[in-house]
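Cross-posting from the chemistry board since nobody answered there.

I work mostly on the small-molecule side, so proteins are not my area. We synthesized pyridoxal-5'-phosphate and want a rough idea of how it might sit in this target. Sequence and SMILES are below. Is it possible to get a predicted 3D structure of the two together?
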Amino acid sequence: MIKIDQYFDPAGWQKFTKAAEGRETPFLVVDLNRIKVKFNEMVGLFPDAKIHYAMKASPAVEVINLLADLGSNFDCASIYELDRVLDCGVDATRISYGNTIKKAKDVRYAFEKGVTLYATDSEADLKNIAEQAPGSNVFVRILVEGSDTAEWPLSRKFGCHPDMAVDLLIQAHKLGLVPYGVSFHVGSQQKSVAVWNDALLMVKDIFDQLLHEQGLKLQMINLGGGFPAKYLNQINTIQDYAGSVKQYLLDSYGVDDMPEIILEPGRSLVASSGVLVSDVVLISRKANEETTRWVYTDVGLFQGLIETLGEAIKYPIYTPTMATSTQSGRVVLAGPTCDSADIMYEETDYQLPQELAIGDKIYWLATGAYTNSYSSIEFNGFPPLEVVYVD
Ligand SMILES: Cc1ncc(COP(=O)(O)O)c(C=O)c1O
């Protein structure tokens, strides 16, 4: 069982409990101040990098406005995210279109709105960009290792082999685009610091090949996201990650030839800002002699906890009786819908107090990333997740 002071100081926790008072569950409380702290920490660790917040982690206007005021740039995955961030008054020069899968008409739309920085990983998409967003800057996303050590891997679907990246960057130049740089994503909630090193070595090879064989000088490396949030499992600190990554970069390029660095953090900026508040709907056992309790809460995979699929992301969970309970027991945690996939944790050893009762509150900590935007609209009739912002 966790202790709440592992995640919050007393004043920080009080903010959440106060916002939760008297409200009908389920809902997500987001403390904007915690996002501000994380953003400023990232800027402090990478003072020379440009941060493009990966909006998909939490595309709420409250979060966008906060980060825009703090000077963040934005990476969007669709024209809908683009419209959202533009509506918040963010200039198009601060926005990248980071999705490698996009319709030609959406590229045109983004270009007409002023976006001139695009990710790609295929010839067909590159040609679309050349036709619909002429003269723009493009960066090619490469396939990298890291899926074994990432809790939410992003490899396979995105990126191309480094050899193909070289070809695409040459082709970009021929098509009148600016071959701007290379990007990668080591996988979300990446536990290994070393995978950045391997990825950066590949990037350096691409930079060298283009310069020495084609006379093309790339200008930018996009390190993507992947920096972890503090869930149940132990992780290295963000300082450890930043220290290693900066060292890898220095070793490869030196101070004088350092390319522009872009970071696209999502999870690491917003996860710790959220607490999802739920009620216990039912506690049951599957057989008379069974000791494991099935605890059904009024949130599940379809109310924002989709990243528990395969028990990938292991959220810390807290219930008030933990503070005094002396006896805990094994539980399976499941959501309220009639879908049998709606089980958050069955294999992972979650323990809750023996005193846990129907109607008790369960707080899902560190749920500020990839939760509210993933919540279904009305699966089984349940409404979308309500979000309350505090600062
Ligand atoms: C292109 C891109 N950049 C950045 C991110 C953010 O990654 P993370 O949440 O691990 O920081 C993602 C996540 O899916 C992504 O697809």
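Reply from a structural biologist on the board:
Welcome over. Reading the output above for you: Residues 194-214 form the longest helix (21 residues). Residues 32-269 form a domain with the TIM Barrel fold (CATH 3.20.20.10). Happy to explain the token format if needed.
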